[in-house]
Amino acid sequence: MSIYQIAVEDQHNQKVILEQYKGKVLLIVNTATECIFTPQYALLQKLYDEFKDQGLEILDFPCNQFANQNPGTAEEIEQFCSREYATTFPRFAKINVNEPDESLLFTYLKNAKKGVFSRRIKWNFTKFLLDQNGRVIKRYAPNIKPNKIAQDIRALVNANNKGAK
């Protein structure tokens, strides 16, 4: 199975097949609006602004599985992220990243890159970096700030841009 075969729902509950992101570097993040790591939204937006024209997409998957830190509706989450952090990257429907009822997307990601001690997602703002071919390159713990990922993203987008010339 390829990540590009997985279907998810966007924040308006419309089906999205991830194949539409083929050829892009992806940073997939489970997020929450009331988490100690919520300020990472600003750093994610900064990454997106820097690299989106070079082929980066950040896919935001709100999750309420950790201490009820994302209780809002899709509309409330969108309003919060727009107002507080001016985010413009794609946001999807709220999902579960661990059992029970975990999203197929996160099953796929966790099987590709296990965490330090287990395959479970430890907390909100766990990040997965995928190359342009849909391969999961790295998994980052919630405490790893997005600006620390910039070098890895730069390497992937630069490799793609060299190959395109």
Structural write-up:
With 165 residues, the protein is α+β, with helices and mostly antiparallel strands. The protein has one domain (3-164): Glutaredoxin (3-Layer(aba) Sandwich), CATH 3.40.30. The chain contains 4 helices and 6 strands. It has helices spanning 40-51, 74-85, 104-112, 150-164, and strands spanning 7-9, 15-17, 25-31, 56-62, 127-130, 136-140. The strands form 2 sheets. Strands 4-3-5-6 form a 4-stranded mixed β-sheet, with helices on one face.
Present the secondary structure layout:
Elements: E1 7-9, E2 15-17, E3 25-31, H1 40-51, E4 56-62, H2 74-85, H3 104-112, E5 127-130, E6 136-140, H4 150-164
Parallel strand pairs: 3-4
Antiparallel strand pairs: 1-2, 3-5, 5-6
Structural features:
alpha+beta, 165 residues, two-stranded antiparallel ribbon, 6 strands, four-stranded mixed sheet
Outline of the structure:
The chain has 165 residues and is α+β, with helices and mostly antiparallel strands. 29% of the residues lie in helices and 18% in strands.
Helical/strand content category: alpha+beta
Helix fraction? 25-40%
Total E-strand runs: 6
CATH topology: Glutaredoxin
CATH superfamily heading: Glutaredoxin
CATH class: Alpha Beta
Strand content: 15-25%
